[in-house]
Amino acid sequence: MAPPPTTSAPDGGLDPRDVCVVGVARTPIGALLGSLSSLPATRLGSVAIQGALRRASVDPALVQEVFMGNVLSANLGQAPARQAALGAGLPNTVPCTTVNKVCSSGMKAVMLAAQSIQLGINDVVVAGGMESMSNAPKYAATARRGSRFGHDVLIDGMLKDGLWDVYNDFHMGMCAELCADQHSITREEQDAYAVQSNEHGIAARDSGAFDWEIVPVEIPSGRGRPPVVVDKDESLAKFYYCGFNRIQKLSCGNSNHQHTHFILLLGDLCPQYDPVKLKKLGPAFKKNGSVTAGNSSSISDGAAAIVLVSGEKAKNLGLQVLARIRGYADAAQAPELFTTTPALAIPKAISNSGLRDSQIDYYEINEAFSVVAVANQRLLGISPGKLNISGGAVSLGHPIGCSGARIIVTLLGILRQKQGKFGVAGVCNGGGGASAIVVESMQASSRLRSSL
């Protein structure tokens, strides 16, 4: 069932059940085994929640529910969202729910929070996403039954639960290759987009655009030394992480059903971003393919959180409303076609918001691969100047449970900086799905005062 379009109240203010964004925060995005890798996803989530509540000037005691996306939950312990909430200082009476919609997890968490406000269940909710891909464990899948003879096999939990298409039994990168073939997107176009993503990301960093989004993370140093403070996206601030750039065969499956696939091996860290080196990278997922480590997103760690309140509560508390959620939608198609599902979800979300395509000022489409952004841009007819203008997952990184919320935070920052009014964020997810959300910036509005 589609949510009702959000419209302005007759007096130009807020309706009581409008879903208002009053605070946002995200951690810097850390590289695989990089600066944030010593912290679990739940700790990163706590930092983001604390930052968002502090910026919103909302007392944690007022929060009625928490929804946090997380994909790689193995070895985190029970109820990751609950851990993040209590770690952020929320009362132990606050219900918490962990959401797993693969890469759309963080956005779906925000959508669930919005629904609870629209339905009158809650007035103050925190939602977002968190992931530490660095800490995803490897599984000894047969250890519980015992091993009678021969070598045991370790399964990479990150690959198995986050990056593998279980329906076709291949890496998600093979879906990107299929997308490139079906939509005639060349290696050159993908590399050009990757260069653009990095240039946009570096420009946003250097201009201070990300400062509005990022809350610093303190890394304990031990032995009485002061903590290390991480306040920049690692791939941009220190180096461009080439990620995986060599191919190895992998047998995957059980003893009765083995398959051989091409997978990725960890490459080297490259000083700064090098467009020339980008052209020299070999295909990462299949021989003679066009998808490489350089034009794909990188494995990362990070968290993002958003404080949502009802229009009525915003007025009562005199909160500054950054934006309101106008509409949202999910879509799905064949699992191997997940890369273009944002082109199905985004029009639904815009329609649900009561708006037209022509009214959208800026778009954020998660860059799982460069080909995802290029294909959806074509399918939706989006002007390049409106899409991912602060870079994206190709340049910043893609902590999968976090990214859906992270792109909402970035979109709100862009609308604020560019004085835009309406924006759309969309993210594809494994299994053939996608989620999209429409926001309306309220940055021009002054701090609201109660009129009740």
TrEMBL record:
Transmembrane segments: none
GO MF annotation list: acetyl-CoA C-acetyltransferase activity
Residues of the Thiolase N-terminal domain: 19-236, 277-311
Annotated active site: 103, 398, 428
InterPro entries: Thiolase, Thiolase-like, Thiolase_acyl_enz_int_AS, Thiolase_AS, Thiolase_C, Thiolase_CS, Thiolase_N
Keyword Zinc applies: no
Annotated GO biological process: fatty acid beta-oxidation
One Gene Ontology cellular component: mitochondrion
Domain Thiolase C-terminal: 320-440
PANTHER family: ACETYL-COA C-ACYLTRANSFERASE, OS01G0110400 PROTEIN
Protein family per UniProt: Belongs to the thiolase-like superfamily. Thiolase family.
Name this protein carries in UniProt: Putative acetyl-CoA acetyltransferase, cytosolic 2
Organism placement in taxonomy: Eukaryota, Viridiplantae, Streptophyta, Embryophyta, Tracheophyta
